[in-house]
Design goal:
Blueprint: E1 12-19, E2 22-28, H1 38-45, E3 55-60, E4 67-73, E5 78-79, H2 83-97, E6 101-106, E7 109-117, E8 120-124, E9 153-156, E10 160-165, H3 174-182, E11 192-200, E12 203-210, E13 214-216, H4 220-233, E14 239-244, E15 247-254, E16 257-262, E17 265-272, H5 274-278
Parallel strand pairs: 2-3, 4-6, 10-11, 12-14
Antiparallel strand pairs: 1-2, 1-17, 3-4, 4-5, 6-7, 7-8, 8-16, 9-10, 11-12, 12-13, 14-15, 15-16
């Protein structure tokens, strides 16, 4: 099944963006109808026969803010939250409208974005989910000390996260351990997996295995979850710098939610051809 839209004969416009190498295809459905199917998401994610992305984001109109965002993983599954994609789209909408503050609705809830100056964009990803049922986990337990080898922390940021604190995040065999813990029985909806090490006061080095995607160069919601987990463990304060494979994010766990700040890039705009769409 392919996406149905009113402009198949002319193709379908898209944008390619990334936040620290965490890359996205963005479809804007405010001007014309687009229905995203899992088949379309999977085909678009193919880096050889499609465009390639970690997440697909769909912008739709909303009466409760500036726009509504829906996120799809590379395997066609959906995600309620995607921090870096939210920042990328917020920067695009700020450039489009001239606004310096936006209200964006998502399946995670209402998120606020602001221009942080110097080309940086901040998004409030909302309060973390710390109770086992909200993350969710398969059974009641202390989310600060999971009964899994390595003693990880569970955190919800609109999607589930499992954070391991290790001596050296760069030495971890992420390709082997990531999928093992993504599918752990304690996480009925699967989980994002992070390995983080403390490299200085309020300074972490982190690597990410993303649910439904695999190894990514960065992840906004994973960075927020790791910052919360580190603060809960007493390893850092509530404001931290996180170095990822693709660059650096600043995360600040405030009373009103977890704020994330970093750079974004609009790489290109293009058109998915009618022939390609018809092949799905």
């Amino acid at each position: 099944m392919r996406a149905m839209n009113m402009r198949d004969s002319q193709g379908l416009p898209f944008m390619k963006m990334h936040g620290l190498g965490n890359d996205f295809v963005v479809l804007d459905a405010r001007a014309h109808d687009i229905a995203v199917t899992p088949a379309l998401a999977v085909a678009l994610a193919d880096r050889h026969c499609g465009v390639g992305f970690d997440q697909l984001a769909l912008i739709t109109p909303t009466g409760a803010g500036d726009a509504h965002l829906t996120f799809y993983n590379a395997d066609g599954s959906t995600s309620a939250a995607c921090g870096n994609a939210t920042r990328c789209i917020a920067r695009h909408l700020m450039a489009e409208t001239g606004k310096t503050a936006l209200t964006l609705t998502t399946d995670r809830g209402t998120l606020h974005a602001v221009d942080a100056g110097g080309g940086l964009t901040s998004v409030n990803m909302g309060p973390p989910q710390l109770d086992w049922a909200d993350i969710p986990l398969a059974e009641a337990m202390d989310t600060l000390d999971l009964p899994i080898d390595g003693n990880p922390v569970a955190t919800g940021m609109g999607n589930p996260h499992c954070t391991f604190f290790v001596p050296d995040a760069t030495a971890v065999d992420l390709a082997t351990l990531g999928p093992r813990f993504e599918h752990h029985a304690l996480f009925p909806q699967r989980t994002n997996v992070q390995f983080a090490s403390l490299v200085g006061p309020d300074h972490l080095r982190m690597r990410v295995w993303e649910r439904g995607v695999g190894i990514t160069l960065a992840s906004g919601s994973s960075s927020c979850a790791t910052a919360v987990a580190a603060a809960r463990r007493g390893l850092t304060g509530r404001r931290v710098r996180i170095d990822l494979d693709g660059g650096t994010l600043d995360v600040d766990w405030r009373d009103d939610g977890v704020w994330m700040t970093g750079a974004t890039m609009h790489v290109a705009s293009g058109v998915l051809t009618a022939d390609w769409l018809a092949s799905l």
